[in-house]
Amino acid sequence: MWWDENLLALFRRNLQPTITYWSVFFSFGLCIAFLGPTLLDLRCQTHSSLQDITWVFFSQQFCLLVGSTLGGTFKKSLKLCLFILLICSLTISLVFSIIPFCKHVGVLAMVMAVAGLAMGNIDTISNMQLVKIYQQDSAVFLQVLHFFVGFGALLSPLIADPFLSDTNCILSNGTLNGSSNLEHIRNSIVPHHPGNVSHYVLPLHGPVLTNVSYAFWIMAAINLPVPIAVFLLMYQKGMVPGCDRRRGSLLSADELAMETQKEKEMYDEKKPGTQEEHIHKEGHAVHFLCCHNKKFWNAPHTFFAIHVCSAAILFMTDGLVGEYSGFVYSYAVEEPLSLPHKTAGYLPSLFWACITLGRLIAIPVSYKVPPRSMLLFNLVGMSATFLFLILSQNSIPSLFIGTASLGLFLSSVFPSMLAYTEDILNYKGCATTILVTAAGMGEMVLQILVGTVIQAQGSYSFLVFGVSLTVLALSLFMVLLVLDNMHPRRLEGSPEKSPEPANYPDRYQQ
Fold first, then answer.
1. C-alpha closest to that of 209 among 250, 178, 166, 242
2. Which of 21, 71, 383, 465 could form a disulfide with 126 if both were Cys (CB 3.0 to 4.6 A apart)?
């Protein structure tokens, strides 16, 4: 049977929280992708220069990193996690509603900073809770989770597109108002790298004609069911003050994970002597302890090396997502390809569409294929794609084929790496915060670095940089495989002899 009965039973038991976390991640995706297409209209709304408005990206991304780190501090309490998700999902709808009223770029930056904090908490908490619920079976559910963020990121530009200005939305005499020029500027804007638009001069004063406000209000309305879903989950768990629907069900995340493990033991009919029974005897209270464990610093050296290695890989791969989507247009319109602006504008859309498609494909694949095999396939595919792009750099069809291929290979790297790393570390939960933060840092830092290199060395360095990062990421993954074999399969701080590796289902056998 394609779907394992035990896993299906576990999914049914956790149906409402799982769907809630998926929907919250859709809210995250909806918020992360709207800023790029709407930035020129927001520039008109705030009467700011291109250089000033692009720093709004920085305020969002920096606070997203802060929020990702803060989200990891709430892992002890399921009640607190759900409350934070409720506040954050409501905040995103509120941000969408407020943006049309921001008439100064400083106010807009502060609003986007608040949105970034909300997005960061959502990112860490949703990943962390799914890992805690499903543990060794979390890979497939993490793939669904990241499909929803891709779906939201694909939807928000489509919602905004009909309301974007076709001409310069600040009316001023003597200014070039052609739609082709504005479309070129819109595709050239790269987050965290305002220098790439410094040579464009657009008017700052005059009447503003833009309908982009309607797009934000539509997105605010689309997002409203998400906080409602979180509230219903809190109500179902008896976490709403004054509601005694399920008194006594205020489970912490650790208790929820303990019940999940007990259920899986009941379904799988574990034999005596397995790791699951050993952990049960030792007590589940220490199962998810990580940085707060008093013996944390006495952990094996491989414990720290695994965190560093996994974080570095995601730093590079998520950085590649931001780098490629941000600079592929600029690469295509310059020599030797010299694509027309409109044709080159399809490349970022194709890239994101293939990322979303790849995450959809990865859902059934991750059920049969273990995370480390998927990671190896993806990283080899990414390296091969960049080599193909370099060898065929004068071919326009090859650029489109390579863009689609790279999107497919990059799509499932993050959820697979998260599932694999937590698997190595016995699902203690602290890896999630570190990996989410490292991925966000990579997306922000590498765009600045690549933009600087391209300006100094030319567009060809765009592909050279991609090959270097993918080969380095693949090399680090080989190191991670060695660390996996070296790392003891036991609870850190347990004095007893390390138990044998967990007896995973057949689909996880290597």
1. 166
2. 21
Give backbone dihedrals phi and psi of 334, rounded to 5 degrees, phi first: -95, 170
On whether both 194 and 117 belong to a single domain, the answer is yes
Asked if 77 contacts 218 with a C-beta cutoff of 8 angstroms, the reply is no
Lowest mean pLDDT, pick from 140-144, 194-198, 347-351: 194-198
Determine the Cα–Cα distance for residues 297 and 291; give it in Å rounded to an integer: 8
Domain count for the chain, please give it. Answer: 2
d(CA 197, CA 183): 13
Task: Give the type of residue at 62.
Answer: F
Number of other CB atoms surrounding residue 208 within 10 Å: 16
Please tell me the distance from the alpha carbon of residue 492 to that of residue 312, in angstroms, as a whole number. Answer: 23
Look at residues 446, 441, 374 and name the one whose alpha carbon lies nearest to residue 408.
374
- Given a contact cutoff of 8 angstroms between Cβ atoms, the answer to whether 417 and 314 are in contact is yes
Band of pLDDT at residue 50, cut at 50, 70 and 90: confident
Contact 429, 132 (CB under 8 A): yes
| Distance, CA of 441 to CA of 236 (rounded, Å) | 36
| Whole-number Å distance between alpha carbons of 447 and 320 | 8
User: Does the predicted model carry a pTM greater than 0.85?
Assistant: no
Q: What is the pLDDT of residue 417?
A: 92
Tokens of 173: 């005499």
> Can you tell me the mean pLDDT for 163-191?
64
State the pLDDT at residue 299: 62
> Are residue 446 and residue 306 in the same domain, yes or no?
yes
- Distance separating alpha carbons of residues 137 and 504, to the nearest angstrom: 9
Q: Is the pLDDT of residue 424 over 60?
A: yes
- Looking at residue 461, its pLDDT comes to 82
Task: Give the residue among 401, 363, 314 at the shortest CA–CA distance from 146.
Answer: 363
| Residue 7 within any structural domain of the chain | yes
Rg value, the chain, Cα: 24
pLDDT score at 492: 43
Compute the distance between CA of residue 214 and CA of residue 216 in angstroms, rounded to an integer: 5
Q: What is the CATH number of the domain that holds 373?
A: 1.20.1250.20
pLDDT of residue 509: 40
Cα 339 from Cα 41, distance rounded (Å): 25
Contact 341, 187 (CB under 8 A): yes
Split at pLDDT 50, 70, 90, the class of 281 is: very low
Q: Which residues pair with 208 in a beta bridge?
A: 170
Residues 318 and 254 in one domain: no
What helix, strand, coil percent values describe the chain, rounded to 5? 75, 0, 25
Here the tokens at position 291 are 């940085």
